User: Which sequence fits this backbone?
């Protein structure tokens, strides 16, 4: 029986066959929750910041700690490709040098966009094809449509699950101590 990964990075490189069974995943989620609460103690959060995360996904993602907590939640559910893609797109838009832009666009396309990509995101065929055409001469905004789709998916699915999660409730509870 495979042992539980010690870090979320180890989870990233595991194939579906290598992932631990459901019962071990729950143990991992509990360890992750405890680690997050300890590492993100009330001193690292502004008073009431955690409560504000429930206002909107945009508010959550503006908070460095909120974004990290949401990403950890998604990793614990083996569904972190959307937040990773969204964050990479945010960084990608800041690139100013054409060579770096072209190189990074190709890597993003290969990792998240192309069919059968290692971290393929859930976008429609039309958007995938438009991005594929944009790869001829990438711009800082060539992934915008896919980023909007991914944000919408997170907002409608992952974010409400996060707000109902034991992890978020534990973060709220840790503020009362």
Assistant:
């Amino acid at each position: 029986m495979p042992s539980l990964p010690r870090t979320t990075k180890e989870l990233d490189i595991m194939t579906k066959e290598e992932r631990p069974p459901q019962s071990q995943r729950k143990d991992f989620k509990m360890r992750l929750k405890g680690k997050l609460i300890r590492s993100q103690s009330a001193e690292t959060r502004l008073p009431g910041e955690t409560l504000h995360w429930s206002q909107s996904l945009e508010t959550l993602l503006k908070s460095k700690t909120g974004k990290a907590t949401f990403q950890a939640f998604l990793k614990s559910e083996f569904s972190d490709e959307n937040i990773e893609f969204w964050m990479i797109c945010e960084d990608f838009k800041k690139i100013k040098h054409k060579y770096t832009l072209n190189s990074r666009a190709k890597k993003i396309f290969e990792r998240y966009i192309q069919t059968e990509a290692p971290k393929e995101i859930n976008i429609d065929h039309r958007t995938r094809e438009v991005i594929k055409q944009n790869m001829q001469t990438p711009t800082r905004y060539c992934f915008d449509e896919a980023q909007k789709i991914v944000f919408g998916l997170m907002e409608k699915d992952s974010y409400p699950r996060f707000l109902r999660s034991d992890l978020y409730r534990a973060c709220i509870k840790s503020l009362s101590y």
User: Anything to note?
Assistant: The longest helix spans residues 144-164. Confidence is low (pLDDT under 50) at residues 1-9, 37-43. The chain is about 65% helix and 0% strand. The radius of gyration is 18 Å.
